[in-house]
Amino acid sequence: MSTTTTPWSRKNPFPARLLVNCGLSGIYSANDTRHYELSLADSGLTYEAGDAVGVVESNCLNLVQDILNALHCTGDELVPDANGEPKRLRDALWKDCAITKASPQFLQALVEKAGDSAPFLRELLTPDQKEALEHYLEGLHIVDLLEEHPSARFSAEEFVKLLRKLTPRLYSVASSPKVHPELVHLTVATVRYESKGRLRKGVCSTYLAERVAVGSLVPIFFHVAKGFRLPEDGDTPMIMVGAGTGIAPFRAFMQERIATGAKGGHWLFFGGQLEKEDYLYREEFEKMQADGVLTRLNTAFSRDQEKKIYVQHRMLEHAAELWKWLEEGAHFFVCGDASKMAKDVHAALHSILQTEGGKTAEEASKYLETMEKAKRYKRDVY
Ligand SMILES: Cc1cc2nc3c(=O)[nH]c(=O)nc-3n(C[C@H](O)[C@H](O)[C@H](O)COP(=O)(O)OP(=O)(O)OC[C@H]3O[C@@H](n4cnc5c(N)ncnc54)[C@H](O)[C@@H]3O)c2cc1C
Ligand SMILES: NC(=O)c1ccc[n+]([C@@H]2O[C@H](COP(=O)([O-])OP(=O)(O)OC[C@H]3O[C@@H](n4cnc5c(N)ncnc54)[C@H](OP(=O)(O)O)[C@@H]3O)[C@@H](O)[C@H]2O)c1
Question: For ligand 1, is residue 189 a contact (CB within 6 Å)?
Fold first, then answer.
């Protein structure tokens, strides 16, 4: 991948035209996971399967308005931007500032402004109340705090100075440039949830889902992921484990390996909640299997039965075969949730090395470390 020959970068993102926004989840799914296609035409940008796209998003204007109302501001007030140049408050809140979750610095300032009218908050900010403070802040956003504490009055400039910078979000590419040289595909779960009686929207996933019309421009840059690459040799077998949106890079990998005529085996484990609702890109993967390029496909739908079945359970069911693939030099990839799934998949792999490979716990850990060092065990987890 080389962005060096183009003027486009994280600091100077390319305005990519959004060509496709389509739902992948069924109507009864708990998720709204969407497939996006962005045009790279005339950008000079290229990427590799395994890379991620950085999306430079903006905030929801309804939320900006709610904050302006709570601040008793019109939005026309001038505040300094990152270079100290004057900018309208409304624009700063729209494009530059993180306006959802409150930082401890913001809370401290709020308490100072509220004076004696927020004794409970003041108490929460004492050092021994860390846990209680965390609990209190769960699901509580800046707008709630402003509304709950009307005695805390900020000037436009004071307020903006207390906010963190809005940062781009990363998304794994779901396409191969060998198949789509002028396009990049993304697979994005739209973050929406309710807290404190309000609908909350993930900034970037709802920017893509709701606020960018098809045909308009999305500022993007490529984030190179050197540690999450296909094996150099097309004969090397690959095992891919992905849950939910974790399928994205594996779609890119499969497109690439098919395009290059790679002969190595491909084994995909995919996990979702319900087979009917959450089987992302089902037809594509089933076709690859029918065509013989996807050697093995194992799915785990957690909520189709009473007892949860996850990808790692499928790995354990096929432990002997999986061990054989590893011994034949397969590269092992994991993508998706970092907090639980990746850890549980790691534990399953560790256990397979003991039961099938006859290793002690220590030897199994060493084996995995060696795989990591040899770049045969690769994770893209978030
Ligand atoms: C390398 C990399 C690759 C990635 N690839 C993908 C990808 O391919 N597809 C994809 O969808 N995402 C991917 N992500 C995640 C993505 O970058 C964003 O983090 C995600 O889309 C959320 O961003 P957002 O701006 O929509 O939400 P934000 O505004 O950042 O809000 C998310 C936050 O909301 C809170 N939250 C979410 N749900 C709830 C809930 N139910 N209750 C209470 N609080 C909640 C949590 O605090 C969470 O951190 C990737 C991340 C990395 C680092
Ligand atoms: N950074 C973020 O905040 C972020 C990023 C991406 C997505 N999301 C949110 O996640 C939701 C959809 O995300 P998604 O498509 O990536 O995945 P998902 O649908 O939440 O999960 C995919 C599958 O993984 C299962 N799973 C849960 N715990 C597991 C574990 N320990 N080991 C293995 N599998 C496990 C799930 O089962 P069960 O659910 O049945 O337990 C489900 O079957 C959206 O609602 C979105 O809001 C948030």
Answer: yes
**Could you tell me if the CB of 193 is within 6 A of ligand 1?**
yes
Whether the CB-CB separation of 8 and 14 falls below 8 Å is answered with: yes
* Nearest Cα residue to 239 out of 357, 365, 348: 348
Beta-carbon contacts of 267 under 8 Å, excluding residues fewer than 6 positions away, are 237, 238, 239, 240, 294, 295, 296, 297, 298, 322, 325, 330
Find, among 266, 283, 381, the residue nearest to 332 by Cα.
266
Distance, CA of 275 to CA of 278 (rounded, Å): 6
Q: Given this model, what pLDDT does residue 4 score?
A: 54
DSSP conformation letters of 347-366: HHHHHHHHHTT---HHHHHH
Distance CA 91, CA 59 (A): 10
Confidence at residue 3, expressed as pLDDT on a 0 to 100 scale: 46
Q: What mean pLDDT is predicted for residues 13-24?
A: 98
Residue closest via CA to ligand 2's atom 39 equals 273
The two tokens of residue 292 are 């013989």
Residues 326 and 368: beta-carbon distance below 8 Å: no
What digits encode the pLDDT tens for the residues 88-122? 999 999 999 999 999 888 999 999 998 887 888 88
**Domains of the chain and CATH, by start:** 14-57+169-223 (2.40.30.10), 61-161 (1.20.990.10), 238-381 (3.40.50.80)
Report whether residue 273 contacts ligand 1, using a CB cutoff of 6 Å.
Answer: no
Which residue minimizes the CA distance to atom 27 of ligand 1?
A: 202
Number of H helices and E strands in the chain, helices first, is 15, 15
- Element spanning 301, H or E: strand 296-301
- Which whole number is the average pLDDT over 339-364? 98
Residue type, 226: K
Q: Which residues contact 372 (CB under 8 A, 6 or more apart)?
A: none
How much distance in Å is there from the Cα of 188 to the middle of ligand 1? 9
